[in-house]
Specification:
The protein has 122 residues and is mostly helical. Helix content is 84%, strand content 0%. The chain contains 4 helices and no strands. The protein is elongated, with a radius of gyration of 16 Å.
Length: 122
């Protein structure tokens, strides 16, 4: 695949990740326990697929750019953000008090990740 295809799929995966996390946050706020179960399964599966796609397309793009041998700091920062996005499902399910702050924090982190990729500050 060419670099533009990797970048397009990476952007799609990021949107899919935010979509799934938004759904999980809204599901956690829902009062109906029956609605929670099916929505949780769908959200968790979508979240996992999005994380996998982000990882594959991100490293595919890095390989096309030829910077796989010595990863710069901005890539490591994006990996830390990716790890946070992977672990966030646990917080969503176990810490209901954090749901509203997460509603703000998750898109902000996605924006920081995009900024890192576009500007490569370090």
């Amino acid at each position: 695949m060419d670099l533009l295809t990797y970048k397009t799929l990476h952007a799609f995966s990021a949107l899919l990740l935010l979509f799934s996390l938004g759904g999980l946050v809204l599901r956690a706020l829902e009062a109906d326990p029956e609605a929670k179960t099916s929505a949780r399964k769908l959200g968790v599966v979508t979240h996992g697929i999005a994380l996998l796609l982000l990882l594959v397309t991100g490293f595919g793009a890095l390989a096309k750019l030829g910077i796989m041998a010595n990863l710069p700091g901005w890539v490591w920062a994006k990996i830390v953000i990716w790890l946070f996005f992977g672990a966030i499902v646990t917080l969503i399910h176990r810490k209901p008090a954090l749901l509203k702050p997460l509603w703000i924090l998750l898109p902000v982190l996605a924006g920081v990740s995009a900024w890192l990729a576009l500007y490569k500050p370090f």
